[in-house]
Task: structure prediction
Amino acid sequence: MPIPKYDEMYRAVLDCLADGKAYDSREVKDAVARRFALSEQEQAELLPSGKKRLFADRIAWTSTYLKKAGLMQKPTRGVWQITPAGQEVLFEDPPKIDNVYLQRFASFREFVSPMGKGMAGTSLAVVSSKSPQDILDEAFLQINTTLAEDLRNEIMKQSPAFFEHLVVKLLTHMGYGGSVEDAGSVVGQSGDEGIDGIIREDKLGFSRIYIQAKRWDCDMTVGRPEIQKFVGALAGQGALRGLFITTAKFTREARQYAEKQHTTKVVLVDGTALAKWMIEYNLGVSTEAIYAIKHIDSDFFAEDLD
Result:
């Protein structure tokens, strides 16, 4: 099931703390995960930034918002406990505990108000169900999606030879072959027997990866016959590893055929994955801005200064 949003877990967290005892945050998170029937795979799902787990991040915001409303507290590091106000809410048993409900608490209104305490007495608009981290990650994803599209458009303006060199350079950025000079070669000539490039898998050159790089229309689909031809070209070279990389898309049949190859390992990379890797490995892009997101350094506050 989809990971619940932070405000959809208010009731579940309060229910876990209902008896007033102090619980380790890990215990509460596990109980909430069971309540929403989240599998281990779902709990391991990462945010778009790839830095944190989505479920852990959202339930952390759940606790933050409940704490700001005065319904739970964190008496020590990693420990959660309901407050008398939180127990009163459970006793009241409202139909729904959400951000609209939490606005009845002055401390929560002060927390969510963009003007701080000066707005505490006003009636606020409904607070978004998206946590600040959700909003940041969605913006990050949107920016990178647009950037990926721009990259594909720029690649399509270049020559096929430029694309073949781009592929080799990307692979060196990913750690294959060492430097561009030592990595291997770009064939790209008539009579290349379906091989556009060769790159060393490691710096010592113990094995090689044979490349077919096709700068084809982004809306075009590459079918099984093209992959069969590539596998045949690899067999002709006695190759054990092949990379078919293109700006186009692969059909399901093409991917299934590649996965069935046992003698030769064949990896297919489409235009979407290509642009993603270019962004990840800083090829053809430059950093425009960096925003540092900081959190409490628990180790600092746990130091023994005696």
The mean pLDDT is 85. Strands lie at 23-24, 72-73, 79-82, 184-186, 197-200, 208-214, 221-222, 241-246, 249-250, 265-269. The first strand starts at residue 23 and ends at 24. The two ends are 49 Å apart (CA to CA).
